[in-house]
Amino acid sequence: MMTKVPFKTMLVLLLLTTATQAICANIAQYNRTALFLQDHLGDGYSKIGSRVYYRGKEIPNANAGSFQFLGSGYAKDTWKVYFRGAIITDASPSTFQFLGDGYASDAWKVYFYGKPLSNATASSFKILGNGYSKDPWKAYYLGKEINGANASSFENLGRGYAKDNWSSYYRGEKNDKFAGPNTQPLGGQYTKDNWSVFYKNQKVEEASASTFEYLDDGYAKDAWNLFYRGVKVEGGSPNSFKLIGNGYAADPWVVYYQGVKVKGASPSTFKALGGGYAKDSWAVFYRGQELKGAGASTFEYLDNGYAQDTYTKFYRGEKLD
User: Fold this and answer.
1) Dihedral angle computed from the Cα positions of residues 313, 317, 318 and 319, in that order, rounded to the nearest 10 degrees
2) What is the pLDDT of residues 13-29, one digit of tens each?
């Protein structure tokens, strides 16, 4: 038996339901508006109205009107300087500037990722690149003083290497393996002096410094040998060697993938397709291994690891059902 609900009760329930729906709609609209009005500044900093946030957490007492993101975690407003949302004590906002490579300075101090460098001269501090920096008296790597370095002649060579008039350095440490003034960065982590060749600061055995040159894609050669990432490629012919791309290379007799011979590949018709795929007139290869069942004549690389021939699709060298 159904119980009759008085009309007034029904009317009140209806009004309450309508009001609730309206409130929820207003809240949703407010959230959408707040999201729309949010000003993303970079590196996790954002502003919503008069509030400033770092990675979703409000920065207490930050002044939104004057707040600005500088780079690499640094920011400031009229009264304070911040690194990754935390106040840098005693930093001067009016003179504070981001220098690059994690370094910043104000009129009195130099900072590396928010930490002050002791005894660094802010007015003459220079960024050299790859983590290296200096002032007129000291050289630094990743914010740490390089003991014994001569700042006036110190220079960044790239790939972690640096030198002054008397010594060479690798990733901020003095490098006794070769003489600083003769250091030559070649690219691809290769370096040489007048007598030896190095890959990632390790001597490349059997390499001739006088004829050594970096090619690309990890490959290098001298007058007698080929090398891949510092390792000799056995049997390679440097005089007729050519790069194909995507880790592939060839001489008139052999195709290589990352310095390893590709079995059964024909150098005269071999070409790289992209994504690790390659082919010659008869076979298809993926990262140096023959891709069994693939038709070379119709095989093509698509994108993002996908490839196909007339009958089959492949993903990263595997057939797709």
Assistant:
1) 20
2) 555 555 555 555 554 44
The torsion angles phi and psi of 313, rounded to 5 degrees, stand at -105, 150
Residue 116: exposure state from Cβ atoms within 10 A (0-12, 13-18, ≥19): buried
Residue 83 inside a domain? The answer is yes
Establish if 47 belongs to a structural domain: yes
Domain that holds residue 61: 37-95+111-116
pTM: 0.56
Q: Please give the C-alpha separations between residue 208 and each of 158, 177, 193, 198, 227, in angstroms, as whole numbers.
A: 22, 16, 10, 11, 11
Position 291, amino acid: L
Count how many domains the chain has.
Answer: 1
Confidence of residue 178 (pLDDT cuts 50, 70, 90): low
CB count in 10 Å sphere of residue 11: 10
């003095």: which residue's tokens?
Answer: 174
Structural domain contains residue 283: no
The CA distance from 76 to 140, in Å, is 25
Count, residues in the chain: 321
d(CA 43, CA 21): 38
Inside any domain, residue 74: yes
Please choose, from the candidates 294, 312, 303, the residue with its C-alpha nearest in 3D space to the C-alpha of residue 276.
303
Can you tell me the distance from the alpha carbon of 45 to that of 55, in angstroms, rounded to the nearest whole number? 6
